[in-house]
Give the backbone structure.
Amino acid sequence: MSDALSAADDSKHIEELYKYVERLNEATDKSQNLKDYQGIIDMAKMSIKAKQLAAQFIPRFFKFFPSLSGSAIDTHLDLIEVEELGVRVQAIRGLPLFCKDTPEHIAKIVDILGQLLVSDEFVERDAVHKALMSLLTQDVKASLTGLFKHIGCVDEPSSDETIREKVLSFIRDKVFPIKAELLKPQDEMERHITDLIKKSLEDVTGAEFRMFMDFLKSLSIFGEKAPPERMKELIGIIEGQADLDAQFNVADADHIDRLISCVYMALPFVVRGASSSKFLNYLNKHIIPVFDKLPEERKLDLLKALAEISPYTTPQDSRQILPNVVQLLKKYMPRKKTGEEMNFTYVECLLYTFHHLAHKVPNATNSLCGYKIVTGQPSDRLGEDFSELNKDFTERLSNVEELTRATMKKLTQGMAEHNKAMAAAKSDEAKDSIKTQKQNTTTGLRTCNNILAMTKPLHSKTPSFIGDKSINLSWKEATKPSVPATTTATGGKRPITAANGSGNVASKKGRGAGGLPNQLVNRALEGLSHGGRSGTRGRGRGWGGRGRGRGFR
């Protein structure tokens, strides 16, 4: 009996609702039918079917009744929270209609939709995506501003981490790929989203920072024809994330990760003419002097970063950095056979850096290495005796060459053994293992060849330093730029091979002769949603996948 009454009530409610809708449709001046619109709002509190229909009609007639706007929106938002999925989805689909003729509501509706991105129901989440895209198409500026409020910044942090990550994923997956269609007028909207991103970068993880920087690089305002000040702007953003104004603490692994990763991210802009002085000065003042105290897994990353940035240094920066580089070079180029095996990749990096710095300020090597280079400047220091320095440096070069040739012989023999093993291998697993060993050996041989090519001209009293692209760094040849050779879990250690280990080619202990130059970046920045927001100090978000402890200052 009760079911029959309930069905009758449902039928009555729906019939009344359709009468309200019919009168509104027929009315020339709909604003006079206030009671009919109030009736639709009231029906949203009745049966499931009535709620679903109310969710369809409340937004449709919303613009005609400004005096009921608060009540209409609040009632509609109540429908988004009901248990019935069909009602919720219909209510979500109707949200953009509130803004069609009343754009002042966009910020509020985008805020609501951003919160709804956390839904576990696919059909509901899909409705949210479509509603957001509809609003972005209608008013991209207001909609983006509303979305970025969920990402937060230092002054206005996001209150819900889950919502924040869902909004970030939506922007990455749905907004960024269609930027050419959405960001119009192009220059104005690209500048607007750049400003929103810059504000958000005050409080991001390493992965999020990399994502945003990749997007900024893709904008036309930062394209190939962009003026120098645009490159300076991007470098400034990266410098800010590198914490170059912070007091350096060698025990702060998070800062070291951030710094080296940022150097790699700055490289494309340095190549295009942006200054690297601030990075280089910080490395020279704080990092290189304590190189021995750095975590072992970061030393090679730093040396590779130095090598890759060295061709683009200014003469002034080169003169300042060269003394510390020579000191490191001497440390890793043994003067005599000591029984310790040389770190070949370290030597390759440092020789490459040395050549490119010395090429810009050749006479600086007179007092550092005992050369006799004449430029006519007081800095030639030709009246001083640096012969002992030259003897020491030359002996180190000769010893390095001897060790390198011996290692090349071992690697060549090893390659022959790998070839035999490959011919005898039966399983795919065995063949893959041997193939990896061959690749590592090839990289080791490249490292050795590079070392010999760079030591040869340095035996002269007036050497010609290499300042062109004739030397291809071993890891640059081994893989295409920015494509990881192997995938490493966040916070994990890289496998010990000649290709990415400690550079100890002869013994194959530790790091070897190669490794991707931005392997640290890929490790530190992989995964948008790794780690939780602890906010123990700094801005709350750490660099890499180990949680967000330290954060960006």
Remarks:
- The mean pLDDT is 83.
- The chain is about 60% helix and 0% strand.
